[in-house]
Amino acid sequence: MSLTGGNRNDVTQLLPLLDKIPAVAGVVGRPRRRPDMLFADRGYDHDKYRRLLRERGIRPVIAERGQPHGTGLGTFRWVVERTISWLHGFRRLRIRWERRDDIHEAFLGLAVCLITYRHVQRLC
């Protein structure tokens, strides 16, 4: 995981994020290092990033600017937005006050543990 400044454009961090995906264990053989496809919103709609994803063997599923909604990407995006909303429920994470990355990541890890615990508690 890498932290960036708060006012960075998300699309500039697309390729570094893909490079940090850990190996996924599963079927016998070489572990997978990248996804089959990438879902993204209109902010990532640029031929350069589509080309770079295809060169890596990843099929881009990116909403196009100027096209009406209805691609179905919103159903996947909602999960991400909901999770970010849950993280913002912790005031310490809503605005980053810590100067040190390791302390911020520790609070982020604690928040994820609490969210998971609460979610599992509802299931039992």
**Low-pLDDT sequence parts:** none
Q: Quote the average pLDDT.
A: 80
Total number of helices = 5
- Overall body shape: globular
How many DSSP E strands?
2
Q: Over the alpha carbons, how many angstroms does the gyration radius reach?
A: 17 Å
- Topology as a string of helices (H) and strands (E): HEHEHHH
For the termini, the CA-CA separation is: 31 Å
The main pleated sheet reads as: 2 strands, parallel
Find the structural class using helix and strand composition: mainly alpha
Strand order in space, largest sheet: 1-2
How many independent structural domains? 2
- In what range is the share of β-strand residues? 5-15%
| Helix content, binned percent | 40-55%
Question: Mind sketching the topology for me?
Answer:
Layout lengths: L13 H6 L17 E4 L6 H9 L3 E4 L10 H16 L2 H4 L6 H23 L1
Parallel strand pairs: 1-2
3D structure, described in words:
- It is globular and about 40 Å long.
- The mean pLDDT is 80.
- The protein starts with 13 loop residues before the first helix and ends with a helix.
- Helix 2 (47-55) links the parallel strand 1 and strand 2.
- 47% of the residues lie in helices and 6% in strands.
- The chain has two domains: 1-71, no CATH class; 72-124.
- It has five helices and two strands.
- A two-stranded parallel sheet has the order 1-2.
- The protein has 124 residues and is mainly alpha-helical.
